[in-house]
Amino acid sequence: MAKPHQEIFSTRSFFILAAIGSAVGLGNIWRFPYVAFKNGGGAFIIPYLVALLAAGIPLLFFDYAIGHRYRGSAPLALRRLGRWTETLGWWQVMVCVMIAIYYAAVVAWAGMYTLFSINRAWGDDPKGFLFGEFLQVAEAPGVGLDFVPSLLIPMLLVWLVVLATIALGVNKGLALANLVFMPLLVVMFLILVGQALFLPGAAEGLNALFTPDWGQLGNPGVWAAAFGQIFFSLSLGFGIMVTYASYLKRRTDLTGSGLVVGFSNCGFELLAGIGVFAALGFMAFQAGSTVDEVAGQGLTLAFVAFPTIISQAPLGSLMGTLFFGSLTIAGITSMLSIVEVIVAAVRDKMNIPKAKATLVVGIPMATVSIGLLATTTGLYFLDITDEFVNKFGILAGAFSCIVAVAWIVRKLPTLRRHLDRFSSFPTGRFWLVMVGGVAPLVLGYMLVSDIIAKIQSPYEGYPLELLGAYGWGMSIGLVVVAVILAALPWRRGVATDFDETDNEHEVTA
């Protein structure tokens, strides 16, 4: 039942590298350290590991099983799993569309800051440089088309690199890119961490990160933060691992691969935490303040705090090149996986060659991305869209998919048998309970809590009309578009039906 010209990773190592490349992204470097710091420090490791074992790895297996068994992109695999569940696959694809549109901008900024680090172009005011000279952010949130010419070329280069790599195919493009980028990322980050550890004040930064606040373990919000971090950092719930698993050979150790990916991702997050907080400890030492006064996450950490550190640290230019180079590489490998989900879905639906599907997807997306993000109001679009896509796109889409598969089409036992056929690590009933019971409860709690919070207090105080357009409206729009795409006919030649009996014979033969 495989689609025509099914792409296949030539080795399991290529798949593992690509999956790790997808999981290790910007959030590992600029989000995890702050989340851990604010949620109990060293004590956060306990809920973090519980979340990894109870939800992260089981859901990773869940995505692997769907993609590997039903041999297709997210929409095609879910269509074969249950006819009406195709809509859930397109929902995941649309989430990837929105993420790719703004993700390209952040990767481009990181690339530019790699160059800026050489001569410390931000001068004595990193914050003013970022929001003023570099991004030229409009004073008032809104929608505008005032272009920032200096952002055009770096964003265009990011899109060209990503689309060219994907057009080359799974082995010559994705696999080779990750084969080069992932070892390079690890080496660069290890050097960065080694440099940061020898800075004055580094020990205070590490103490701030790892000193446990055991009282936080009784706070439900801390556990929700742990599950949220694991969920987002492993690229769960938006079609990436489903798509990548569809490229695996039939006789593949799925659970063994998943364990390698899951623990590698978490290992990199801990490494990032050490490097970031050692550097923040130095920043606090230089400023004569405490670590909690200088700690931040996201854009503030990457493009304001770190330039400040780079300007003050010995061999600061080297540190800046390593830090922003790492951000660029991590961003590229993650963006490759995001765009691959969209290209694979279009290729399946239209039954067209990979290169053509890449152009069909890439040209409109790059145009919209540059048109929205290379403007003075692009930062407002990025901030709102990122928040709402993560919460009401990824979370809601994943929750719906798990509930549909586990409780409506009731395919979890089938997926469990598929996982256990050739895998080195049997899933057992524990996996059924975690995916069918614990995961929906946790995701549902996180989703409801966030909806209530955003209704009670508008996100970051943005105007309601802007939140309505970029936030709530976009979140609803993704579902509407998904329903429309699912209603469109599949091109002749694509096998959308699936015979479970025939597949059982094929896999066990």
TrEMBL record:
Pfam families with a match to the protein in the record: SNF
Subcellular location: Membrane
Chain ranges passing through the membrane: 12-32, 44-67, 88-112, 151-170, 179-202, 222-247, 259-285, 322-346, 358-382, 388-409, 430-448, 468-488
GO cellular component annotations of the record: membrane
InterPro entries (UniProt xref): Na/ntran_symport, SNS_sf
Keyword DNA damage: no
One MF annotation (Gene Ontology) recorded for this entry: symporter activity
Top-level taxon in the UniProt lineage: Bacteria
Keyword rRNA processing assigned: no
Keyword annotations from UniProtKB, A to Z: Membrane, Symport, Transmembrane, Transmembrane helix, Transport
Membrane topology: Multi-pass membrane protein
Family the UniProt entry places it in: Belongs to the sodium:neurotransmitter symporter (SNF) (TC 2.A.22) family.
Annotated PANTHER family: TRANSPORTER
Protein name: Transporter
Naturally occurring in which organism (per UniProt): Arachnia propionica
